[in-house]
Write a structure and sequence with these properties.
9 strands, five-stranded antiparallel β-sheet, about 190 residues, about 45% helix, four-stranded mixed β-sheet, single chain
Length: about 190
Amino acid sequence: MKTNFIEIKHGPQFNGLISTMGLFGGIGSLVYLIILLTSSELVTAALTLISLVICSSIFLDYRGVQIDLSNKRIREYRSLLGYKHGRWESLSDFKQIRLKWERTHTTSSYGQIIQDRSHGYSSDGYCVVLEGAHSLPFEVGEYASYKAAKSVMLQLSSSLNLPCFDNYAKILESAKESRRNIEGRATRR
């Protein structure tokens, strides 16, 4: 039996100016709360505790995606103290699900300035995206592992009855073929 609602939680994001303000507000509230508890100001301490909870919620910045199958709509949401808000979009705008692979390279500025070399690292990201002919792509989520992204893609394909395309599977097969060719040349020598 299929459920009428799918929720994909991305967890806390810790980014943006508002999240940073929540962090500093939370730290300030915690320090002030400790001072108040030592001086027996319980009413003010209770209000400061409420402020700490709100600031912590803003700092954590919980996000995710909700899919309402009965009303055929989808939204990316942000959650503040359990209240989820975001703009709903029609699911009928999307015709397929695609898994995309992205490699990002990050270079350290410190290494370039001090040692006149660039130090950096690469990381892989696997994105699951809903695509349509006349709509902008809707990113369902980015995952650190191929296995997790593929699982989400297959679950959505089954639930939404949409075809799915795995771009990374083609890249994997091409890499395996290249390895077989290289190993074949090495054994012939």
